[in-house]
Design a protein that fits this description.
This protein is α+β, with helices and mostly antiparallel strands. The longest helix is centred in the N-terminal third of the chain and has 35 residues. The chain is extended.
Length: 742
């Protein structure tokens, strides 16, 4: 991996030295009041003392880095508190300064900003990934409460990337990849396009230095070859606007090296095939002038079909507004034009930071003050349902998308969703209650499945039912972090309540085996339950029962601890109940767990033997998996019973199960044309559904083996299916299979 050339390094070092000088920072703070200026000066002095003796990798005093970060923040016209936090952002992490000391010296708002920027390296985590996820979670939540946190962080990362040549090469890959994966998308998501482009370019330079150098040379050669053509386009465009009497400002722009590389890579193009390298920005007075200017350009040059985008009528999710059109200029040179007003240009380059730029340069309220607030609020919503840092970051990454689709509600409201978003994402974007209860959808007045991916301009209408609930299968196709976190939270809540109910059943059953009729009521036996909870280490009765229900604790062990506490409290076991529970043979013991197939997450039916109603069964408390049901003759359960016998519980089937159950079917059939269709028709006629089919690779010229999973009501239904298949002339052999064979 090659370093950038020496002249680049010297130029970069000179630029950084100027940018990092304190006098340079002060000259950029003319928009602050005298009192604010003095506060920033005090923060500088404190930071300078705190970092005294510390050097950066290039040998310069460490304080040059906080000054450079504060200078970037000053370019966005951030307030004094943000500038002070920028100067102090490494004081807690690198200098041992406490948060309380910052509060005492500079106030709580500044201390909170610095705290939001401080990594969590001092805490102990299991892995680097876990540490990183927790750090990002902390930063993003601080950002959601105060967007200045991420602006300072992006300024910090930008300066680190600009000076990366001084870092050890071993760190280039990790830091550049992290920046490209996380910080650049956040900058884009918040509309900070200038910062976004710079971060991408710097990442490209350090991740793929050879490709960066090759494309840079190719662009330089193309620039020199086409300089006259570009000047001709600019001259002709300026002439058209002068004749029309329009006051415009025209600036040339060149596609960034990384965007050229990405287009070449994604579309498998050579450099010569990337035709839209050059472009112009046309800045006009107002919105109407944008459309007028576009009309004049379309009269001058022919537009490329399908290359016009109106981001003024429908802004991007980060607030970006412009008209985009690609025209065929002289010598068939494709040229992109972006047309916008001054206000739109400010937002296009600075995104959420434009709020502060507006405040200092415009007397009216900033139109973009709400930029990014919906996404920032969604971070807090996701956090409410996701306490695990890695899961939180997984949700957030899904929302850091560079593109979006724009869809409409039946009333004409526009919603921006990530590309690939589905009807379920749309429903959750309207409201979480709509998402939880959605059962049907119509897209452009046609009925569509809930997993349908939405396209630009779709009009989406969803139908709901009051008793509907989220389906776990939705997690396989939803794209937004909001929808994913809401679905997972609902499923966790549902599983917890089911596990708690199962735990109560299991503990009741275990106590009956010890001669006690029922669980003592919590309200009348508070001290008794408190003693039991101290033994188990649980915080509440509900938590203990949930742990039993998911197999973290054994009901028999808890019951054996409960018995002496009950005796101590004056209760005695019932000898008759004890005898009946322990020695009754045949029939159902009172308190036995009854299964009807509606138990959802708290009960699983083992795939090794696939039990169905009518089979003799037993229940095994898996560790953290809930109650797993096996057939009594299952080889897997027999091995478990020898090793872990205390984890088995008595279970029985309900009289009327509420659903069908999977069972393994093995068939050997004549190897003739259309035999699979005959099998499917026979099974349909027998009233069963095919869940899975495997044709295998053991076919001979005369016979073909099939292994299937089908759904039946009970063993009686299974016997009828088997008899029906065995009567078919093309079936040579039919049998029940265990999971190992299917």
């Amino acid at each position: 991996m090659g370093k950038p050339n020496t002249s680049d390094q010297l130029a970069s070092a000179a630029t950084n030295a100027v940018a990092a000088s304190f006098s340079g920072l002060m000259s950029a703070l003319g928009y602050l009041s005298a009192s604010d200026l003095e506060q920033v000066r005090l923060a500088y002095r404190f930071a300078d003392e705190a970092h005294l003796g510390q050097l950066r990798k290039d040998g310069t005093p460490y304080i040059t880095h906080p000054i450079a970060v504060a200078t970037q923040c000053a370019d966005w016209n951030l307030d004094a508190q943000a500038l002070m936090a920028a100067l102090l952002h490494d004081a807690m992490e690198d200098c041992g300064v406490s948060k309380s000391e910052l509060i005492e010296r500079f106030g709580s708002p500044v201390a909170e900003l610095v705290d939001g920027l401080t990594k969590l390296d001092r805490l102990q985590f299991n892995s680097r990934e876990e540490t990183q996820a927790e750090s990002f979670r902390k930063m993003l939540l601080a950002m959601a409460r105060d967007v200045r946190v991420i602006l300072i962080k992006l300024a910090d990362r930008s300066h680190n990337m600009r000076t990366m040549a001084e870092m050890p090469r071993s760190k280039w890959q990790r830091i550049a990849q992290e920046t490209l994966d996380i910080y650049a998308p956040i900058a884009h998501r918040l509309g900070l396009n200038k910062t976004y482009r710079e971060l991408e370019e710097l990442c490209f330079r350090y991740l793929l230095p050879w490709r960066h150098a090759v494309i840079s040379k190719a662009v330089t050669r193309a620039r020199s070859r086409r300089r006259d053509l570009v000047h001709k386009v600019q001259s002709e465009v300026e002439t058209v606007f002068q004749r029309a009497g329009m006051k415009v400002r025209i600036a040339g722009r060149e596609k960034s090296l990384y965007s050229i590389y990405r287009k070449m890579d994604n579309k498998h193009l050579s450099f010569a095939q990337v035709t839209d390298i050059y472009g112009f920005r046309v800045i006009v007075d107002d919105t109407v002038a944008c459309y007028t200017a576009m009309g004049l350009l379309h009269q001058l040059y022919k537009p490329v079909p399908g290359k016009f985008k109106d981001y003024i009528a429908i802004p991007k999710v980060n607030g970006y507004q412009s008209l985009h059109t690609t025209l065929v200029g002289p010598s068939s040179l494709n040229v992109e034009f972006q047309l916008r007003t001054d206000a739109m240009h400010l937002v296009a380059e600075s995104g959420v930071a434009a709020h502060w730029l507006y405040k200092t340069s415009h007397p009216q309220p900033a139109a973009n003050e709400r930029l990014g607030t919906q996404w920032l609020q969604s971070l807090l919503d996701i956090q409410d349902e996701t306490r695990d840092a890695a899961e939180f970051w997984d949700h957030v990454k899904g929302d850091l998308f560079p593109d979006a689709v724009y869809v409409f509600t039946p009333k004409g409201q526009i919603l921006a969703l990530p590309r690939g978003a589905t009807v379920v994402d749309f429903a959750y974007a309207i409201h979480s209650r709509v998402g939880e209860r959605v059962v049907s959808a119509r897209i452009n007045n046609e009925a569509k499945p809930l997993r349908t991916e939405l396209k630009n301009g779709d009009v989406v209408e969803v139908g709901t039912q009051a008793d509907a609930q989220p389906d776990p299968a939705w997690l396989g196709f939803v794209r937004t972090g909001r929808a994913r976190s809401k679905i997972r939270q609902h499923l966790k809540t549902l599983a917890q309540s089911e596990s708690q109910a199962l735990g109560e059943q299991l503990l009741t059953q275990a106590l009956r085996s010890e001669g006690f009729e029922a669980l003592p009521a919590e309200a009348e036996n508070r001290q008794l339950w408190d003693k039991l909870l101290r033994f188990s280490g649980n915080k509440s009765r509900a938590e203990l029962l949930t742990d039993i229900g998911i197999g973290k604790r054994l009901a028999t062990m808890v019951a054996k601890r409960f018995v002496p506490l009950l005796v101590e409290a004056g209760q005695r076991p019932d000898a008759l109940l004890l005898s009946r529970e322990r020695f009754a043979q045949g029939g159902s013991a009172v308190g036995m767990i009854t299964l009807d197939g509606g138990e959802n997450a708290s009960v699983q039916f083992a795939s090794c033997c696939r039990p169905v109603p009518g089979d003799a069964i037993k229940g095994y408390m898996g560790r953290g998996e809930g109650l797993i049901i096996h057939t009594s003759d299952c080889a897997v359960s027999r091995k478990l019973e020898q090793k872990d016998g205390e984890r088995f519980s008595q279970v029985e089937w309900a009289d009327e199960p509420v659903r069908q159950f999977d069972i393994g079917l093995g068939l050997t059939v004549n190897n003739v044309s259309g035999v699979l269709g005959k099998v499917a028709a026979a099974l349909t006629a027998a009233g069963v559904d095919i869940v899975h089919i495997d044709m295998g690779e053991t076919s001979t010229q005369d016979a073909k083996d099939m292994r299937m999973v089908i759904a039946v009501r009970d063993t009686g239904h299974w016997d009828a299916v088997l008899r029906s298949l065995r009567r078919a002339p093309w079936v040579m052999h039919a049998r029940r299979l265990g999971h190992a064979e299917t």
